[in-house]
Amino acid sequence: MKILARAALIAGALALCACAKTGADRFGNDVALGGNAANAGIIPGSANDPASAAYFQQSVGDRVLFAVDQSTLTPEGRATLQGQAQWLMTNSDYTAVIEGHADEQGTREYNLALGARRANSVQEYLISQGVASSRLRVVSYGKERPIEVCSTEACYAKNRRAVTVLAAGMS
Amino acid sequence: MHIGHYISGVGHAGFIAALLFGGFAPTPEPFEVTEVAVITGDEFDRMVQAARPPQTATDVAMPAPPDDAQSDAPAPAQQDTPPATATPKVTQAPEAETPPPTPPAPTPEADVSDEPPRIAPPPQEQAVLAPPVSDRPVPRPVPRVAPEPVARPEPEAKPDPVQREEVVPDDALPPIPQDPQEATAPEEATTEIVTEATEKPSSAPTASLRPKTRPNLPAAVAETKPAPATPPATNQNAVNDALAAALGGGSASSAASGGDSPPTDGNGTAPSGPPMTAGDKDALRVSVQRCWNVGSLSAEAMRTTVTVLVEMGRDSKPIHATIRRLGYEGGNETSARQAFEAARRAIIRCGNDGFDLPAEKYEHWRELELVFNPEKMRIK
Amino acid sequence: MTPVKTLARLALTALVALATPPAAIAQDSGRLRLEITDAVIEPMPIAVPQFIAESAGASDMAARISQVVVDDLIGTGLFRQIPSDAFISQVTAFSSPVQYADWKAINAQALITGAVSTDANGLINVKFRLYDVFAGQELGDGLQFAGTQEGWRRMAHKVADAVYNRITGEGGYFDSRVVYVAEAGPKDQRQKRLGIMDYDGANVQYLTDSSAIVLAPRFSPTGDRILYTSYETGFPRIYVLDVASVGRRALPIPDGDMAFSPRFGPDGNTVVFSLTQGGNTDLWRMTVDGASPVRLTNAPSIETAPSFSPDGSRIVIESDRSGTPQLYVMDANGGEATRISFGQGRYGTPVWSPRGDLIAFTKQNKGRFHIGVMRVDGSEERLLTASFLDEGPTWSPNGRVIMFTRETQGAGGEARLYSVDSTGRNLKPVSTGGAASDPAWGPLQK
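^ Those are the sequences you sent over. The predicted structure of the assembly is below.
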């Protein structure tokens, strides 16, 4: 148990650390983080800790998906974002970077702009829900960082996304 | 970690810069361009005269007959041309490896080898899409675009603008002495440039062979045959002329060699009188355009129409030195020069064996004014 | 020719022959005049005997230089090499007279002879002559180039450029470089860094490391600087990189905004780029020093991927103001934009040809990508390629060849550079020694 707890702690720390920098390793790995702590009690930083980044990712949901070419939020997307907004209001010492992404069906530069539109939709919605705009930044990766690598609609659908990535520390 | 990257980056950058510019940077001008000043043109000419008594380098100035003789003469004179190695190696003619005194024949393997890496689309795309298109064959990408589509020649045929029957010396009864003539065929060609995008995806498995361009075949036959241009025409013009004279008309002679004579323009109507018939003119036009290669012309030259004057010898060969530009339309002086050079090559190359022109109408074709208008080719 | 056409021609010929009395056919000028409108398009056969080594120890260099000259010319698809074992006469000295008949006999339409000498100081001298075999004369005068040993490839390219120019009438493109993005790693964690190489993939050097994503580099008109987009700070920013020193600096962008898609104007001082503010992407212009920013478009739509006309007066851009990405031409100072793409599908990354007559673009239609060209007014659209993903065309300095990115699909998908003639012929991969994308062709080197 102790070992497990430590593992979870390390995992949480890693997640935070990964969020704070812009390395490539963050993009694919975040989903796997919670498994370690599945049966643990409430451990600070773990997915069971409602104040943790891991909890935000898994229980609140850190991403919303978009239709082809669209940056309009879906009803499910809005529900997710309401949860995000509540969480952010509760945990006010986090800031967030909203990353916009596109699938690979489009030219590189256009997709950058499209990803920015998506990130912006999320940002505006969070602000409308009461999150201070000073806590939110947006960035677009266009089609540079897919989370799924196949070339079918099943993957494209998951790649057309905006991900709210937490960063610790209020300015 | 970041600092490490930066240090590494800067270090690499410096190293790269040293690699890139270490060689060039110190010398202010990386290149000194000068005309080759080894010898002057005059000296060159004199050397040429001294080194080789007759022709070779100066055959431009020669009138046609000597030029004709010259194509035979130097080769035997040269001791360093062993006949066996001199002939392109893939030739099929089993007999007579003698140096073919006949026409230019490009080596076949080169033609085959420059097939661009035009690959069928990856299989998975086909498998997924299964486009609702018919299997109708589409023009295949071939490195050659010609006015008439030409089916892929028999493998053993050497490329030649003119299709020829194989002429094998026949011991039995040779009425006229003939040189061994290999079977030749025009190189495979399509009528327009086929881009990758215009290639219709076939619903057939992509790995299988593409359909042969069957629909083109009849056209190819129909087009190449009417060329009364070079019937049994070897380089023996005396024979040719005699034959033409004997048969009393240019295109009629094709019946003698071609066997099945398809509907040839003007064939049946050719009067024995002096004027050039439309058929005569068409035959000449066709034989010149076979050698007019615009593939390497600039976009500007492709907008330039040049008018070229050429004087013809009685042997129906162009007199090279007389080929000159009368004028041009569109383009500029530079593009006109390129366009003229391509036109000149066409006249010389396809006139090498003499054009198919009725000897008795010599006065009509003694001087030819050829207008090379590439407008139609621009869109291909 | 169709049978119908043949028949029609036959009938017409017969009619004319019957109806017209012989006297009327007689030539007015006394000279037979014919118009030739059909031609063939095929590679011109050329002979390039190995260059002569004119000094001791130069034979290796001579062999390498002649090979690069041949590779350059053959690589255009406009020429085809006659193998040397078909040669009848050999070239033993640069100044020996040319046996035109021997070259005619093997149908060599052009002959290139050359010689290479080296000296003790590490300098090499390359000279060449070009002959029109069938005309029996030299095309232009011989030229020679002197340079350092390290620059031997460039000298070979210079020879090939001169030959190309004399035969085609077009400027060459062999002595030029390409800046691109070298890629490594799996699709979801792709490492990217800027690479620069000769147009043929030789002499690859890297200009940045892989610690941050870099995108879509562009050369300045003189080739001494490169504009590109990098995520160095975690957010896309535009950088100017000096090729010689590899020093770089960022263009000043308001904090919180994204800047990308930078392009040099033909003056080498103006930069047009996309700036994203509040989710909306518009085009802006500033000097390469970051001074005097001017907003060129102001619309809720995406405006990106600009490209200057060669005279700098206009730009062609990609915009989705109509609902899907399409191409528009507008004044380089802003104002009305005129749509020029009207075909089916989506159009992007327009690039104005250096000759000014064509615009190359990426087209996406029915699940496939194409590289195509159209005239500046949008007419005569012509698709040159088709694949799962082709994008980002760039023109050779002479406006004849287009290089672009082709990416294969699926988890193992990988990007490679390809080139294609603007006619659609001669499609082929460019060797880069690894995955690569976003090529930008630089100018012909001085």
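The mean pLDDT of chain B is 58. Chains B and A do not touch (no CB pair under 8 Å).

Shout if you want it in another format.
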